[in-house]
Amino acid sequence: MPPATDATDGDARILDAGYRRYAGDRGGVAHAVRSVIATTLRRILGLRRPARSKILPVMSIVFAYLPATVFVGVVALFNRFGDDADARALIPEYSDYYGFIISAIVLFVTFVAPEAVCPDRRSRVLSLYLASPLTRMTYLLAKAASVAAVIGLVTLGPPLLLLLGLALQGEGPDGFLGFVTVLLRIFASGSMLALLFTSVSLGIASLTDRRAIAAAATLLVLVGSHIVAGTLEFGLNAPDESLLVSLLIAPFILVSHIYGETGDFTGLSTTATVTAVLGWAALGTGVAVLRYRSLQVTR
Q1: Which candidate, 203, 241, 243, 204, places its Cα nearest to that of 220?
Q2: Backbone phi, psi, residue 169, to 5°
Q3: Lesser CB count within 10 Å: N end or C end of the chain?
Q4: What does each C-alpha distance from 142 to 40, 57, 113 come to in angstroms?
């Protein structure tokens, strides 16, 4: 830099050059995590983005809530014009509701995690996040919380809507204790599904920075695990526990156990089912953590 020169009154002078410390308020790690969660939720749901970004989330949410809306509407019509017993016979058990929305859940799971984490690495803004109070693990925790919250919209919300709708029509659980029991089971089942699919999808999405590849790989793992389980069980006559390999069977068997039912899988114990679900969750979480710990961040 050339030496400073004298300047007459009124002329601009550069007295100092360089960076200055930020002197404003600092929110800390908690504020940074909340900011990442809010930003990620808006991105996943397509808020403040073009209309095409809202198509998949809106379609998935509509497909997930539509059966519950129809069931409550049917009960309301039968209660008004028909027989209450006929109406209740048409309504599935709360544990069986996921069978009506499994396609919406799969669709949601395949695009949520890739949309949450892949763009940050592809556009090389991860280093900007890590320049804040966030570390790699708090960043990943914020992303996981966002993904779990969004997936919870289709695993927790629909059966909760069904419960509230039936209760308002006088077709809900018997008594206050029965209502609370079903409510707790809905929260336990929906939260378990959201956490499991969050772990698995984040683990897969952490391996690539391309959303399309991550979404396709997630769908392949979900459907592929189901095919493998079916081949083992029905093609090779493996024990019933082989069905727990499937990500489309194991968690929903656990849902049945949460509701105190066994359904068609009477030979599968709760212990084996919980072990399988925890194994999948641990595998997905481990892959994501190891990937982000070893990830080379470019500036």
Answers
A1: 204
A2: -95, 5
A3: N
A4: 9, 20, 12
At 1, the pLDDT band (50, 70, 90 cuts) reads very low
DSSP 231: I
The pair of structure tokens assigned to 84 is 């209450």
Q: Do residues 33 and 138 make contact, with C-beta atoms less than 8 angstroms apart? A: yes
Contacts of 204 (CB under 8 A, 6+ apart): 113, 214, 217, 218, 221, 284, 287
Give the span between the Cα atoms of 104 and 252, in whole angstroms: 15
Please choose, from the candidates 199, 198, 276, the residue with its C-alpha nearest in 3D space to the C-alpha of residue 243. 276
253: Cβ–Cβ under 8 A, 6 or more apart, which residues? Answer: 243, 244, 263, 265, 268, 273
Q: How far apart are CA 211 and CA 218, in angstroms?
A: 10
Rg (CA), the chain: 25
Dump pLDDT digits (tens) for 168-197.
888 878 888 999 999 999 999 999 999 999
| Angle at which helices 270-294 and 136-155 cross, to 10° | 140
Question: Which positions ≥6 away from 212 have C-beta within 8 Å?
Answer: 114
Nearest to 95 by CA among 152, 158, 149: 158
